Amino acid sequence: MKYALSISAGAVALALATSSVAVADDHKYAPPASANAQDFIAVFKELNGVHPGLRKAHAKGVCAAGKFTPSAAATDRFNTALFDSGEVPVTLRFSMGGGNPEADERQGTRGVGIQFQLPNNQQHNIAGITSALFSGSTPNHFLGLLQWNLKIMRGEATREDIAKYIAANPSMQAAVEWNKGKMPSTEYTNADYYGIHAFWAAGEQQREKFRWQLVPTSGNEYLTQEEQKSLPTTFLAERLMERLEADGEVSFDWHWTIGAEEDPTNDPSVLWPEDRERVHVGKITITAAGGENCTPINFDPMRVVRGIQPSDDPVLPMRSAAYAISFGQRLSNQ
Ligand code: HEM
């Protein structure tokens, strides 16, 4: 059970030498031929149990609030409602990947959802995790991973099967490599978060493709192996409150990496080259945490404002559909 819950969208927390695994049966280890949003909700519930009123993924988390201040570079270069209004309030939620409301915070991927509250009741959402890549080029790859975890939980498969599944599906390997050896952050606010997908932003002349990253202004800090053993399983929300009490606020710089013509927009399992231009588009400052202000929010990343467009990444519409189901269920206490 615990093992299954360490899987989240972008991060496969496996210490596997995938390249050394011989794949005997390609068909057995192919991703499911079809995947829809209901399949995801069903498998999340089977893996984690049914928790009425809670998110079916990223079940454990904490609300926060603050503001977004766009940079001059952002307002000069992009023509979007996101940057047109100067400083705006934001509602955030930090979370643990997976659908376990008791997730062990000494391991695993962290997530953040942010809603920008723009004038005229417009809202723009982003939701990212502490992994730069998605586990595969399609939603089907991720569904397959969850289904293998379910089989392990039921005693119908072993970790070796997961290794074979990843070995049989090359697009899943970059996320495993990227996450290999990385320790989880000591606080929600000292890790980098990645939007993973490509989006489009309107420029002066033409639209530009971008991927976003949030970088904590105070730097990254990771748990030591000693801390991983000694800490309780729950500490992140408390540390966020303590941080705000001590420092008054905590912030992230928001960067957009601008894709070149040849950089794919439809494959979240492929990193763009490191030399791509990065624009500092602004700062997110968190000033309060706790409470329920984020509970009635669906941080659907396809809810965007004028001047921003989702790309053709096939994972994006799957997310949108799955979030809508989870949102509807949790608000009606299912
Ligand atoms: C096919 C892929 C995915 C599926 C099916 C999926 C599904 C879900 C679901 C059902 C929720 C709960 C939504 C709610 O009840 O409001 C959720 C939350 C979340 N997901 Fe995903 N997800 C996927 C991919 C991703 C990716 C690629 C990222 C990061 C880039 C991500 C980041 C998050 C975050 C941060 C939350 C928590 C949002 C909050 O605090 O409300 N997910 N996901």
TrEMBL record:
The keyword Endoplasmic reticulum does not apply. It is an enzyme of class 1 (oxidoreductase). One of its GO terms (biological process) is hydrogen peroxide catabolic process. It comes from the Bacteria. The active site is at residue 58. Residues 17-331 form the Catalase core domain. InterPro entries: Catalase (IPR018028), Catalase_core (IPR011614), Catalase_sf (IPR020835), Catalase_SrpA-type_pred (IPR024168). PROSITE patterns: CATALASE_3. Heme binds at residue 323. Its cofactor is heme. Pfam families: Catalase. CDD domains: srpA_like. This is Catalase-related peroxidase. The lineage of its organism: Bacteria, Pseudomonadati, Pseudomonadota, Gammaproteobacteria, Alteromonadales.
